[in-house]
Design brief:
With 191 residues, the protein is α+β, with helices and mostly antiparallel strands. Helices cover 24% and strands 30% of the residues. It is built from five helices and twelve strands. Strands 1, 4, 5, 7, 8, 9 and 12 form a seven-stranded mixed β-sheet that branches.
Length: 191
């Protein structure tokens, strides 16, 4: 189950429930327990979403405000840690070719601008959220170091905007046709 204090994960869980269609299933994982593999511990997944019989989306939720900051507004904050990225990549390797590791940025929209079309915003407990996914492999390839001390990286905003896919379109909710293959094999540059 999602962490009860993390409104980003709770909003994503509510989003999955509200848009529940026969082909959507999800599992929320307790992050307090790290899995042990032969190579050491690995961060747990936040969700496993199965929009079809052939694809499992391995999801790590990244909660961010849109925009962030009070004085200097920043609209595309998308940092992550190397631990998150390497753990997600290892999960994808362990679960095989039918899985796709994703960072899902759950943006709490606090201004008048939105990272998605207005009709794609999700209302939860008096707040508006936008869910954008980036393949972990693309994120690793295109990110730059942010803080060596905290082992964080971020994608440049321009590349992030190209790579980020609204979660609605991954699930095929825009036209009720599941399209998980749209994500698997797609590159950040759109080629």
């Amino acid at each position: 189950m999602a962490k009860r204090g993390n409104h980003y994960e709770l909003a994503f869980e509510a989003y999955l429930r509200e848009h529940r269609v026969a082909y959507v299933a999800y599992v929320a994982v307790n992050e307090q327990r790290r899995s042990l593999l032969a190579q050491g511990s690995i961060k747990s997944l936040d969700f496993i979403v199965s929009p079809s019989d052939t694809v499992s989306l391995l999801v790590d939720i990244k909660g961010r405000r849109f925009p962030s900051g009070e004085q200097h507004k920043q609209y595309w904050k998308n940092w992550s840690t190397w631990d998150d990225l390497s753990s997600m990549a290892r999960w994808q390797d362990k679960l095989g070719p039918g899985s796709c590791a994703l960072l899902v940025f759950a943006f709490h929209v606090v201004g008048t601008r939105s990272p998605v079309e207005i009709e794609q915003l999700f209302a939860f407990r008096g707040r508006w959220y936008a869910f954008l996914a980036v393949r972990v492999s693309d994120y690793i390839q295109f990110s730059n170091p942010l803080s060596e001390r905290w082992q964080t990286v971020a994608m440049p905003a321009r590349l992030f905007r190209q790579a980020a896919i609204p979660f609605d379109s991954i699930l095929g909710l825009q036209n009720n046709v599941p399209q998980p293959a749209k994500l698997v094999g797609q590159h950040a540059t759109g080629n």
